[in-house]
Structure formats: structure tokens, C-alpha cells
Amino acid sequence: MSNNHSDTITSVVTATGAGVGIIRLSGPEALIIAKKITNKSLKPRYAHYLPFYDQNQQILDQGICIYFPGPHSLTGEDVIELQGHGGSIILDMLLKLTLELGARQARAGEYLERAFLNDKIDLAQAEATADLIEATTAQAALSAVRSLSGEFSKQINDLLHSLIHLRMYVESSIDFPEEEIDFLSDGIVENKTKKIIEQLENILSIAQQGVLLKEGISFAIIGQPNAGKSSLLNKLSGEETAIVTDIAGTTRDIVKQEINLDGLPLHLIDTAGLRESDCEVEKIGIERAWKAVENVDHVFMLIDSNKGFDQQDKIILEQLNQHTNKITIVFNKIDLLNQKANIEENKANTEVYLSIKKNQGIDLLKDHLKKVIGYQNQTEGIFSARRRHIEALEQALESTKKGLEQLLIYQAGELLAEELSIAQQFLSEITGEFTSDDLLGKIFSDFCIGK
Q: Is 245 in the same domain as 309?
């Protein structure tokens, strides 16, 4: 992460080809540069419609210029927005002009980085901005808006307040042992610590839902040729993504599809039918199928009910168990046996019986999938979160539980206070109160240019 924030940055902040193109400047020279381009004194927060001039006083474009003086701006610095036509040539000329006049090209995420460093937003809100832009479902977008508005941060800050208050209470009992009341044995510390653990577990549960909404889950469909893998992919996606024929070995490579399951992004992978083959192309597809299995959250093993669970299925399942334990066995074509769709969960691997062709049992399969990954079909109160947030919450929870254990077994208030201090540091990393420059650099470098 750059430590120099005294210079003025510039970049195009709109997509190429849009009707309107916006160039944003932020920093101490932003207003000076804008005056040179517009030949006009600019009133704060006023939309000036005027020409944009180059250094030879030739008109490059006609548009709107808005001046946002710091600290009441996006970044907390002086900010200028030049809103012109969205043609790539015009925008490129305007951008080059701002560079010639003393600005430098903004790095990815640098506007939000400056907003964070100038206390306009915290780190969780900055990340939520990127999550909102990248959201692939309405539910994911709504959860990102909640985090962006500060809901996630508020819960973390409330928890931090409780943690700090408890630390003060515990440390006071250590610093003043001559007091008549034994603060550590009156039950107050134990109850407050348990309350914090309960709060941590609740926030962690909500954050895990937020991560699911943001990232979704991936799963692979594997099995012998003609078991119905491509048909299941098409049924779940609602599109004829994969070719379906009666010819064994039709799918010879990985087929990927993104779908929306009740607001949850799903990354489906259809694989080549697993069998012995002399075809070099099919063999490569089978190798890729096994590699895909190692990198997904769940696997559907499809079996032709009409053929039954045969020796080849047994071999495939044995190989599967060497790669993952997240397996659901799906028996397809139950319509040929006049069976009813059902699900059996009291086995080593859950078994779902369905007919893709007759659309029987598909909802059972969807509900089972949401259950095994812990997805709750609700958006109220869910905020967007990232895996680093989950890790921080889990570590804070582990430290708090460890501190409670030290208190209950050894009456060790000083050890509880130390664990609470560790938990406090982990929580502070979420909002960015205590975060290393390396982590900040990594977070903001993942943002797009113009944010």
C-alpha cells in the first residue's frame, strides 16, 4: 500500500462505451487542474455545464464539472468529477490531459483506500462497496448494501464495546485485590463472558450466510456416461447448456454454468462420464473431472436407477471418497421403475431418488443442497462478509472461549483478560482499526480501477 497520499490522483470511473463518461480527480491539486480544464471558478457542489479545454485552449468536450471540497467528499479530499461523453477516445484525451496537468493515474482501489484512511468509511464498508459492484444476485446486492450502510460494522463495534468493558471489569479485580468483593467469583464475569460468546456465535452465523451470498458454492456432477449429468445441469440452470444425447461420452470436457438458487449463486460443473476409454480426448476430460472434484464444495454422484448401482459405480464412489466426503448420491430415471421421488439421509451418503426427465424430486435435491451447505433462504438482517471476516470472528470466538475456560478452571482473571485482548485485536481487524499495511494493500489492490 502506498504511503504517499499528498499527490492528486485521476482515473476514468465509468465503463467503456457508456453514454456518459466520468473522470474523477482527488487530492490537493484537483481544483487547480479542474480550473485549467474549464477556465472557470467552480462553486462547491454545483453542476457547471461548460466546455473542457486542452492546454492549447481547444475544446475537447462539453459536459458537467462538479467540485466536492474536502473533507465532505467521497475520499475526504478535494474531489472533482468531469462528466463528459462516454466515447473511449474522448475519455482517453481528457485523462491524458489531467495527467499532463499534474495528476497521476490512480491505483486500483485507491479512492476507497483514501476514504478509509481519512475516516470516511471503515474497512468492512470499503469491502462492501466492491461486493455490491460484484453482486450476482439481488440478495447478494441487498446484503452488500447493509454492510455498506454500516450494519456489519455497528455489530462489530457494539461487540468490541462489550469486550472492552469486560476487560476493564476483569483487570480492575486484578489491580485491586484488597477489595472485599471478589469480582471473579460473583458470577458477573462468567455471565458477561458467556454473553459475548453468544454474540460472537450469532454474528459469525450471519457472516457465514453473507459469505455464501457473496461467493456462492461450487459443485460437480459426476457419474457414468448417460446417467443424466448434462440433463441435471440443464434442469438446474434452466438452459440447454450441455449437449444431451443417448450416445455415451457426449460430454468430453468440463462444462460450467452459473445459476441462482433462491438468491444463492451456484457454480455448476458438469464433467465427462467416468469410464475406461481409448479416446485420448475423452481421457483428458475424465482427468479434468477428477481435478474438478478436488476443488468444489459438494459433489452429486449420478446413478442410472434403471441399471442399478453396478461395479463401475462402486469403483467411482471408492475413488470419490479418496477426494472428498461431501457427496450426495443421486439416483436418476426412477420413472422407468415407477418409483416415487424421495430422499434417504440415514446412510453414509445421502441418497436422492428423482427423475430429471419427468421433473420429479428436483426440489428435494435443491432443498438438500441448501441444507448441507447451511444456507438459509432469507435476506433480512444478512450483511455481506468475506472469508477474512469469518476467520477473524472464529479466532475471536476461540480466544474468548479459552479465556472463559481459564476463568472457570483456574480462576485466572489475568489469563481471561489476555484472551479478551487477543479477541479484541481480531475483531478490530474487521473494521480496520488494527490492520497491517500488507493486508490493506492486498484488500484494496483487489478493487477495480476508479474505486
A: yes
How much is the pLDDT for 31? 96
Terminal Cα-to-Cα distance of the chain (whole angstroms): 15
Domains of the chain: total? 3
**Sign of the Cα pseudo-torsion (226, 227, 230, 235, in order):** positive
C-alpha separations of 61 from 15, 26, 414, 415 in Å: 18, 21, 67, 66
Residue 101 belongs to what domain range? 9-115
pTM over 0.85: no
Out of 350, 372, 394, a domain closes at 372
- Pair 231, 206 in one domain: no
Q: Are 302 and 223 in contact (CB under 8 A)?
A: yes
Per the rule left: phi > 0, alpha: psi between -120 and 50, beta: everything else, 187 is: left
* The domain boundary residue, chosen from 329, 347, 372: 372
Residues 183 and 229 in one domain: no
Residues 306-328: tens digit of each pLDDT: 999 989 888 888 888 887 888 99
Residue 378 inside a domain? The answer is no
Cα–Cα dist 244/182, whole Å: 74
pLDDT digits (tens, 9 = 90+) for 151-169: 999 999 999 999 998 988 8
